[in-house]
From TrEMBL:
The keyword Manganese does not apply. It holds the Pfam family Carb_anhydrase. Belongs to the alpha-carbonic anhydrase family. SUPFAM superfamilies: Carbonic anhydrase. This is Carbonic anhydrase. The lineage of its organism: Eukaryota, Fungi, Dikarya, Basidiomycota, Agaricomycotina. One of its GO terms (molecular function) is zinc ion binding. It comes from Athelia psychrophila. The keyword Lyase applies. Residues 1-20 form the signal peptide.
């Protein structure tokens, strides 16, 4: 397992295809190896029709959880959702000149180093990426976007954590570091391309983030292979972004949210809609008049 994490962490230095085989069904957490100005492999799944979310489980035998998992993400959140103890989340991303922005076709991803302290564990940052609109919903409502910081356990286990932030489009406020990073989008308009992002300073962002309240639940990756046992921490209040920046993001990521999954522990939406299994045929009233 250590060599697996090593390979992922150092993928930028020693480009190679990262095909990690780990326990807990978390065998594919980093879909590419990237080099600055290099190219990356575009995933086989999409947010379209036949290769879209309703069919992810049929695209690859490793994706079965996308169809029949019982702790899948995203889910509906509301006031009854568990929260992480206040002050128990600490994000730390050192200032860096060597973050890499990647266009995966399905998403844009920023690769950089950092740590998260949450649920009494320390996690290692792999990348963060964007979904438009949000994947999770609060009281049934989507936000304009959702940012996912993806971490692996630093103890060598295959566990994953995701720290998530909703984005709300605003006239008067923005989040400067996200705006700075997204200002590089014109350099990666072609899926598969990468560029180096200079002077990424997350200090103000993380100072704010570490004071927020977080929903906490155990779910899955929201992309194939939909691996479970993912610790989710989702900020209850959104971060702002100017509309111009949001539009540049959306023009690149298009619509890339997975549909809402069943509540944790319940049969997956796909399984529960198989007719023979669960349909209750409504009783017809006999002798009713039909009108045209
Ligand atoms: C990437 O390529 C562009 C155009 O060829 C070049 O100007 C830029 O310096 C390169 N970036 C890096 C980090 O090598
Ligand atoms: C499933 O994942 C394993 C481990 O990562 C990999 O070796 C195998 O090629 C994958 N199967 C398919 C059909 O892609
Ligand atoms: C999900 O489907 C796979 C492949 O058909 C099967 O091996 C696995 O047992 C199923 N899991 C559940 C929880 O039904
Ligand atoms: C909160 O969400 C849960 C799970 O979806 C649902 O069962 C419950 O009715 C919701 N409660 C409120 C107050 O919306
Ligand atoms: C992350 O840290 C490793 C060494 O700890 C370094 O080799 C790598 O270049 C760093 N990656 C980025 C994107 O800064
Ligand atoms: C973290 O550790 C404290 C003290 O041991 C414990 O009370 C708390 O429940 C733990 N929190 C989590 C989320 O595991």
């Amino acid at each position: 397992m250590f060599s697996t994490l090593f390979a992922i962490g150092f993928a930028l230095v020693a480009p190679r295809t990262v095909v990690a085989s780990c326990a807990h069904g978390v065998e594919w957490i980093h879909p590419f190896s990237a080099t600055v100005n290099g190219t990356v492999a575009i995933p086989a799944f999409s947010y379209g029709t036949t290769t879209g979310p309703l069919n992810w489980h049929n695209l690859n035998t490793n994706n079965t959880l996308c169809g029949n998992g019982t702790n899948q993400s995203p889910i509906l959140l509301n006031t009854t959702t568990s929260r992480a103890p206040y002050g128990s989340i600490t994000l730390n991303v050192p200032i860096t000149d060597s973050a890499v922005l990647v266009n995966l076709g399905t998403n844009v991803e920023v690769i950089l180093n950092g740590t998260l302290k949450a649920a009494n564990s320390t996690w290692k940052l792999l990348q963060f990426h964007f979904h438009t609109p949000s994947e999770h919903r609060i009281d049934l409502a989507h936000h304009e976007a959702e940012i996912h910081f993806v971490f692996t356990a630093s103890d060598g286990s295959a566990k994953l954590a995701v720290l998530a932030f909703f984005v709300q489009v605003e006239d008067e406020h923005t989040t400067p570091v996200i705006e700075d990073i997204l200002s590089y989008l014109p350099d990666v308009q072609i899926p598969g391309t990468t560029t180096q992002v200079h002077a990424v300073d997350m200090s103000a962002f993380q100072e704010h983030a570490n004071k927020l309240s977080y929903y906490a639940y155990t779910g899955s990756l929201t992309t194939p292979p939909c691996s479970e046992s993912v610790s989710w921490f989702i900020a209850t209040s959104p971060i702002p972004l100017y509309i111009k920046v949001y539009k540049a993001l959306k023009d690149t990521t298009k619509t890339n949210n997975r549909y809402t999954q069943d509540n944790p522990g319940q049969t997956s939406n796909i399984e529960s809609t198989i007719p023979e299994k669960n349909w209750v045929v409504p009783t017809r009233h006999k002798g009713g008049s039909s009108s045209h």
